[in-house]
Amino acid sequence: MSPLQISAYTATSAVGVGKEAHADALAHSRSGLRANDFGDAPLPTWIGRVDGLEDVRLPESAMAWDCRNNRLAWLGLQADGFLEAVAAARQKYGASRIALVLGTSTASIGETELAYTQLDADGNFPSDQRRPAVHTPHSLAMFVQQVLGIDGPSETISTACSSSAKVFASAERLIRLGLADAAVVGGADTLCGSVLFGFNSLELVSTEPCRPFDAARKGISLGEAAGFALVERVQAGGNASQLLGYGEASDAHHMSTPHPEGLGAERALDDALARAGLAADAIDYINMHGTASQKNDEVEGALVARRFPARTHASSTKGFMGHTLGAAGIVEAVVCLLAIERGLMPGTVNTRALDEGFGPQIRLEPATGEVRYALSNSFGFGGNNCALVFGKAVAA
């Protein structure tokens, strides 16, 4: 495929707002996880909670969209000059030529949960919750489209934990087919009861900070995050990092368990490398999906061990901000972009002893060095897999 330029990007998670906060946490192996304090009856687990969301105020013109998920998106959009970058693209291309592709797994369902606790005597939502557009999966995209002032093609992708990785693939197709000249991609997911108690019902939630690929791993730590990127055709003389390839596959093996041999994950990996025109040994850093669940880590660890040389630096960053579900793809894409631009390869925090079944690629400590190519894995329920390859700008 023809590469796409990543002209601007940002992320907000439990480790902070913006690129600098994330780079600092990754460099110093500083986790943002904390004992669960979310909700009226917190589960005994650890979470990656973003501080201050309760105090975030949307622009007056967008207050009709107010909910935790959209507040998180607004907080994230204001970081790293992202709003200004989109404004410049809007001026260059026109509002109708900028697409919007966002991923989320729960959207504003937390607000809907709240509304159900406020039913009146007739069983109806209170008047301030009668906002049908907010109580839909497309709420995030409609809100972001309004505050960015763009009106090109708009999509919401909801494929569980691969949602905001697949946005890059959709954006590439929209631009390649001439339906847009640029695209804002990303996603946001916030903590809510459905997420915490839903994953707990699957016996996937750990009572301690998650330990990806640890021999004694006990499950995931849930988190919330938002991230965004502006992608466009490569500009002459530009030095921004690039999206080089993507791969998507659905193995449809089980509703919540990956294929035992990782067939879908490997198919996504193969397609991403093929589109990028790279062999596996060209990859310098891998951001693994690495949720700390028994089966995901088992399958992904085996895949990386058999396909990549021992020198490849691989890690999971779920121990930093938790598993941010539909936002995981974009946040971990940002980690890859930081690795390329700063030569920083993060370690795997909280993990004490790697499962002996995994290879030497998985590193517990951060490292520095040139990162020419980075791979990001995002694997969702139902075997919905996405792999992304990013690289340094190639001189024209």
From TrEMBL:
Any one GO MF annotation of this record: 3-oxoacyl-[acyl-carrier-protein] synthase activity
Keyword Transferase carried by entry: yes
One GO process term, biological-process aspect: fatty acid biosynthetic process
Gene Ontology cellular component annotations, sorted alphabetically: cytosol
Top-level taxon in the UniProt lineage: Bacteria
UniProt keyword annotations, A-Z: Transferase
Family that this chain belongs to: Belongs to the thiolase-like superfamily. Beta-ketoacyl-ACP synthases family.
Protein name, UniProt field: Beta-ketoacyl-ACP synthase
Residues of the Ketosynthase family 3 (KS3) domain: 1-392
Annotated CDD domains: KAS_I_II
UniProt cross-references to SMART domains, sorted A to Z: PKS_KS
Database matches in InterPro entries: Beta-ketoacyl_synthase, Ketoacyl_synth_AS, Ketoacyl_synth_C, Ketoacyl_synth_N, PKS_Beta-ketoAc_synthase_dom, Thiolase-like
